[in-house]
Amino acid sequence: MAATGAPALEMQIQGQLFHVPNRHHSKIRPARRCLADPCWRALYGISAALVAAAFCAPANAAGCAADSSEHRVALLELYTSEGCNSCPPADRWLNGLQDRGTGTSQVVPLAFHVDYWDYIGWKDRFAKPEFSQRQRLIASRNQSSFIYTPQFVLNGRDFRHARKQGGLEERLKAINAEAAGIWIRLEQTGRQNKVRVALRAHNADSTSAHVFLVLFQNDLSSEIKAGENVGKKLYHEFVVRELKGPLPVAPGASVERAFEFDLGALADPADLGFAVFAENAISGENLQAMAVPLCDRTAAAFTPGASIARADQEARVRHSATKPVN
User: Fold this and answer.
1) CB-based burial, 118-148: b 16+ in 10 Å, e otherwise
2) Strand, coil or helix: what is 307?
3) What is the reported pTM?
4) Between the N and C ends of the chain, which has fewer C-beta atoms within 10 Å?
């Protein structure tokens, strides 16, 4: 959106204060540790066998791999800005999901910082135009005539009850009870600050899907020097730093792509992680999501081979077994 210089508009939606562009009137940290620890397995929704084989292998292992859960994992997006004075409470709420007993085996939270508030005094260093554009696409899919911050989006739908007591938990129970229609595998390899992520997805659903890969970062903070939050120190978790995709995948088909990331400017690697989500190509409804920490390992370059092919076949058999019998 073009900067107009006019003051930000605020509006009340079901008793909560939101920022609306005037044109349209405690934390979870990937850690350098063996994920065979039961609490980390529970957090990331990864089986013990997979963890032992992929994350706790000898240091000369070929890389780190993780599969998505057999159940459906939700995607919770927060559209926020450091230039919005009604956003910090939403940021804190997202930061505290783990403290309230909600882990990434249930829902993958991602904070998308938008750039359309940069004109009112403070430029958000985490904001990107493509994040604002994604929010506009979600608004269009939801037949909404405006965008606002802070906005929570659960599985592709505007979710204004996110911070209501029990509101998220009840929704997650229903979502997590469903079998996943998409199988995803991530394998990380790399040397020093260069990481290569191989993504493989198989679509056992009856609809076309778009798959996205996210590099996110935790334990971030900013001293705000101007704008509506001047004088405050803001803390952020699950901040989206890079968004790759969409990768189209037709019903019954698979997709495989590799992406390279230069992590040199992103401080402590222990604060980094990758997330993948697959959404209905038309409606934007989330079909599956997963999040894993950055693998603390140096390894040789990844070449797709028997392990990926075998995992893909296992996924096909697993999903076929979950189909109803006529």
Assistant:
1) bbbebebebbbeebbebbbebbebeeeeebb
2) helix
3) 0.76
4) C
